[in-house]
Structures are given as C-alpha cells and as structure tokens.
Amino acid sequence: MIPFNPSPLRKMGFTPGTVVETILSTISSEGTPNVAPMGVWVQPGANLVIRPYAETQTARNLLEVPEAVINITDDSRIFFNTAFKRRGTDTEVFFYDPAKSVRPPRLRGMLGYVEVEIEEPLKPEEVGNPLEYECRIKEVEAPSRLPQVHSRACFAAIESVIHATRIVALSDSDPDQTERLYRLVQEYHRLVHRIAPNSVHSGVVDDVLYLVQRLVYWL
Ligand SMILES: Cc1cc2nc3c(=O)[nH]c(=O)nc-3n(C[C@H](O)[C@H](O)[C@H](O)COP(=O)(O)O)c2cc1C
C-alpha cells in the first residue's frame, strides 16, 4: 500500500466534511465489472467512506471482491448512463481499462482515479440504511487540467439523476416522497432548459424526466 498523501485528493476536490459524487467500479467474483454513481464521504482526516445500499449490485460485488475504483467525472451523461446502465450509441457504451492495484477496472476517459480496498463494514446492516465502508487508498491518479467554471446546469442535471434513482427505489412504497422528488426533477428540468437549453445537460434532464414520468404515471 502506498503511504497516504492527501494532497492529490484535495486537488481533485475531495474536501474533508463533504460528500463528493463519483462513479464506482466494482467487480463480481466471476469477473463481471459494474459501474454506478456513488457518493463518497470525505471524513475529517480525509478518510473516504462509501455507503452503498444493500440492494445495489455495487454492494453485492463489494461483498465478493472488496476493492473498487473511484472514477472521477463531471459529465452528467456518465452519471445518468451508469445509474441506469443505458447502452447503445457511442457515448453510452462503457469502456474499461485495467486498474493498477485492484481487480475492478477503471472507466476509460475519466478525469481521475482513486483505487481502494474496502474495509469491513463500519456498522452492522440495518434495514433501510446503506452499508458503510471505509476505503484504504492504494493508488491515486491526479488529473492535470485547467480550472473549470461552475455551471448550475451540471449540478442540476446530476441532482436530477440522483432523484431519479430514489424515485425508482421508492415509487412502489412511498408515494409522498416520490411526488416530492418528481416535482424537484420537473424544477431542475425547467432550470436546465433555461440556462443550458442546447447542452449535454438538457439532454440528461430530458432523459431523466422521460424515465420518471413513465414510472410516476404508471402508479
Ligand atoms: C450522484 C449519485 C450518487 C449516488 N450515491 C449513492 C450512494 O451513495 N449509495 C447508493 O446506494 N446509491 C447511490 N446512488 C444510486 C445508485 O447509483 C443507483 O441505485 C444505481 O442504480 C446502483 O447501481 P448498481 O445496482 O449497479 O450498484 C447515487 C446515484 C447518483 C446519481
């Protein structure tokens, strides 16, 4: 294991006390890779904690192979496609490259990679709560790129993808929460079409709205 040096992580925006949104690659014991958006808690001292719900493929893979790659991107399309595993056209197929120190692969073309081993769960599993795993960092590849301007459209598009994943999980059991999240998705859709009408982000919020409307109107 390489000595933990927080500096490249800090440069990539892993700010202690913050949840950062990433794409986690994991692998099953049979060698099938999986990618999914996952929040990473950056704890004081810069320890990283991930919290996958037990019903996700990510959680199942981590039980079999306790290693992961934290792939870093700010592309809202990658959040949508990996959350809903949409494949088809060029940009929606997942291409992988081998990681340097763990078995799950890297998602090709990301802005940076953090390869980790997963420790034992911090708490026993509780119904309705995610599992919590501390990560032991094995490899960090820091990006070198120009500073990026902030766009509310990027935030809003990724936020709508998160809400869509919650709507998928809750639409059968919690109509009030589903309704609340659906209204937020509509709100972000309006916002993105106002500030970034012809962008990758407007494409993502269109896809999200289409997906959740099929679910909500089905109820
Ligand atoms: C930005 C973002 C962050 C997310 N963070 C988490 C998380 O921390 N834990 C979790 O269980 N699901 C999280 N989700 C939802 C999962 O990505 C979603 O349920 C996904 O379909 C799980 O895929 P899997 O079953 O292949 O693991 C997040 C979704 C988004 C868009």
Shape type:
globular
Secondary structure: helix percent: 25-40%
Gyration radius from CA atoms, angstroms:
17 Å
Question: How many DSSP E strands?
Answer: 8
Give start-end ranges of low-pLDDT stretches.
88-92
SSE string, helix = H, strand = E? HEEEHEHEEEEHHH
Short précis:
The chain has helices at 6-11, 57-64, 76-84, 152-170, 175-195, 200-218, and strands at residues 18-27, 33-42, 48-50, 67-72, 96-97, 106-107, 112-121, 133-141. It is α+β, with helices and mostly antiparallel strands and 219 residues long. Strands 1-2-3-8-7-4 form a six-stranded antiparallel β-barrel.
Description:
This protein has six helices and eight strands, in the order αβββαβαββββααα. The chain has 219 residues and is α+β, with helices and mostly antiparallel strands. The chain has two domains: 136 residues, Electron Transport, Fmn-binding Protein, Chain A (Pnp Oxidase, Chain A, Roll), CATH 2.30.110.10; 67 residues, no CATH class. The strands form two sheets. The protein has a six-stranded antiparallel β-barrel. Strands 5-6 form a two-stranded antiparallel ribbon. A hairpin with an 8-residue loop joins β5 and β6. α4 packs antiparallel against α5. About 2% of the residues have low confidence. The protein binds flavin mononucleotide. Flavin mononucleotide binds next to β2, α2, α3 and α4.
